[in-house]
Amino acid sequence: MTTDFTGLRRGAPLGDPRLDLCDLYVFASPKDPARTALILTANPNGEPLHPGAVYRIAIDNDGDLRNDIAFNFVFGEPSSGPVGARQKGDVYLALQAEARVDAAAGSRIFGDMDVSFAGAPHVWQSGSFTFFAGARADASFANSNVIAMAIELPTSYLGAAPDVRV
What we know:
- By secondary structure, the protein is mostly beta strands.
- Helix content is 0%, strand content 46%.
- A six-stranded antiparallel beta sheet has the order 1-2-3-12-11-10, with no helix packed on it.
- Strand 11 and strand 12 form a beta hairpin.
- About 3% of the residues have low confidence.
């Protein structure tokens, strides 16, 4: 499944491309069909993300159209290093009532992870979760990068009853 958030909007929210959500991908892991990959892309400039924003993938798994699970991605202030931009990120897992608040609520399942802007990607593991954040080629536009925030987890964790809405 792919969703494009741009629609009829012309320009980034608040005029800041770091806040511009691009696409949402949900699919079975190509390496393990018992796992699901969730990928949110943002910032069509492929540059560091906004340090004051909460980027979220929210999931309703019981049909009531309210968040039951939320993965909240937050990023620190970017800095420059000898090979370009550097930024660290955290991932919070929020369940039930915590998944419905407008903040980076929940348990921190990844902390101080490097965002990959160049070179080999940094892929992180924590329990049954795998996480990556970094610049990647935009699937919709040639010669353009976005920042991808990807989480992979056991599909059973999504607990579909009767189905899942992301």
